[in-house]
Amino acid sequence: MRVTTTSNSLTDEISRVLTAFARWLNGYGESSWDYQSFYAGPMGGRAKSLYYRSRLVGTAAVAPMVFCEAFVPSWRRLFHRRMRFPIADAHYAMGFAFLYQATSNMVYLERAMHFLRMLKQTRCSQFKEYCWGYPFDWVTRNGVIERQTPLITSTPYAYEAFLQVLQILRNSSELNSLSSACCPPSSVLRPLDLLDDYKQIVESIARHASADIKDFKTSATASSSSYTPFDKGRVINAAAYRAFLLTSASQVFSNDNYWKMAERNLNFVIENQNADGSWPYAVDGVRDFVDHFHTCFVMKALAKIHALTGHQACKEALAKAVSYYLNNLFDVDGLPKPFSKAPRLTVYKRELYDCAECINLCLLLRDRFPQLEPPLEVVVKAILRDWIKADGSFRSRRLYWGWDNVPMHRWGQSQMFRALAFYLAEARKMRGERDQASDVRDQKAALAS
C-alpha cells in the first residue's frame, strides 16, 4: 500500500512514513506487548496490588519491573504475551479511513473495515450492547478490573471508528465496487448491508453508554460518569468521553435524552476544572495528578462537543485549558512532557502517546485557537525526525537512558498512525479548499475581463 497524495514537503514525508508503517503493520501483526505487560501477568499483577496496599513493601515488589521498564523494556516479553487491543483496532480503523479520505484509495477503506470486523469479534460478549475493554486483568488502586470489562475510555473510540466509516460509505459513489475483502465468503453481509450493520452497532454503543455506564449526581446540574458499569465514578476523562459520545449520538439519532445525560457529564467536567485551567485525573482527593494525554483526552472531548453544539461554557473552559496546556505541558524543546504534576517518579522523558494526542488535539482546535498551530508543527517534525525506526514503526518512549523501542499498539503506535493520517487528510482537505477558491477567483477574473 502506498499513500499517493502530493502537497508540501511535510505532507510528502508523512505520506512516506504512513506507507512504511502500513507495511510494517502487515508484517508485525495486529497483537503486541503493552505498557502494562509487566503487570498483566500473575507475578506483576500481585506485585502491583501489593504496591497499592502497602507502599513500602510494594515498592520492593515492583522494583524489578520498574528497573526493566527504565533500562531493558524489551524484557516485557518475559512477563506476559502479546495481546490484541480493541482500542488499538479502533485507532487503526480511523487511521485507514483518514487515508482513504486523503487518497480515495479503496484499499485503505477495505483495511479500515477489516479492523471494524476485528472489533465486532472482540466486543465484551457478556453484555447485550456493543462495548469494549482490555484483554487482561487490570490492577488499579481501587481493585482489579477484570478482562473484558467495558471501559468508557475505550468504547468511544470504537463508536467513532464505526461512525466514521458509516459516514464514508453513505457518501461513497463507489460502494458497490468494494471488493470481497470487505465481506468475506463466510459473511452473509454484502457491501450495501454494511450500512445497516454499522448503523445498528453505533446505536447499540450509544445504548450501552447511556444505560450500562452509570451517572452519579455531584451537583444540581452535574453528574460524574462511572469508568465501568461497576464503579462509582469521579474520573474526569471518563465523564468527558461519555459526554462526547452521547452528545454525538443525540444528534446522529435525534435523541434529546442522550443530550440531557451528556450535558450533566459535561457540566461535571467544567465544574471541576481548576482555576489555572487544568484538570486533576479524578475528584477523589487522591489522584490529583495532571498529565499530558489525560488532559488531551478531556480537551478533545470538549472540542468535539463544542464543534457539535456551540456550547459557550465549553468554549470558555477550552480557552482556559489551552492556556494551561501550552504553558505547563511542554518542555524547553517545545515537545510534550508527561506531567505538570506527577504522582510518582517517572522513568522516561517523553512518550509517543503524548505526542500523538498532542497532534490530535491541535488538529481539532487550531481553527478556534491558532496558537496551537506552532506546537503542532514542532511535534510533527520531531516525530518525523527522531521517532521513526528503520522497520517503519515508531519508537515508544524517550527514556533517560536511550529509547524504549518495543512497539505497543495500544500505547502509541495506533494513536500516532491515526494522528498522522488525520493530519494528512486535513492537509488534503485544506489544499482542495484552496484550489477551489483559486478556481472561483480565476472564473471571476475571466468574467470581468
Task: Explain this structure.
The protein is mostly helical and 449 residues long. Helices cover 58% and strands 6% of the residues. The protein is built from 15 helices and 9 strands. The strands form 4 sheets. The protein has a 3-stranded antiparallel sheet. Strand 8 and strand 9 (403-404) form a beta hairpin. Helix 1 (9-28) packs antiparallel against helix 15 and helix 11 (292-309) packs parallel to helix 13 (352-365).
Strand order of the largest sheet: 7-8-9
**Could you tell me the strand content as a percent range?**
5-15%
Helix content bin: 55-70%
Structural class: mainly alpha
Please trace the helix and strand order, writing H or E for each element: HHHHHHEEHHEEHHEHHEEHHEEH
Secondary structure tally, helices: 15
Mean pLDDT: 91
| Cα shape | globular
How far is the N terminus from the C terminus? 46 Å
What's the layout of helices and strands?
Blueprint lengths: L8 H20 L8 H4 L1 H12 L1 H17 L14 H18 L2 H17 L15 E3 L2 E3 L9 H17 L19 H21 L3 E3 L5 E3 L10 H17 L3 H16 L18 E2 H18 L2 H17 L10 E3 L6 E4 H14 L7 H14 L10 E3 L3 E2 L4 H40 L1
Antiparallel strand pairs: 1-2, 3-4, 5-6, 7-8, 8-9
Give a short synopsis of this structure.
The chain is mainly alpha-helical and 449 residues long. It contains 15 helices and nine strands.
List its salient traits.
single chain, 449 residues, mainly alpha, 3-stranded antiparallel sheet, two-stranded antiparallel ribbon, 15 helices, 58% helix
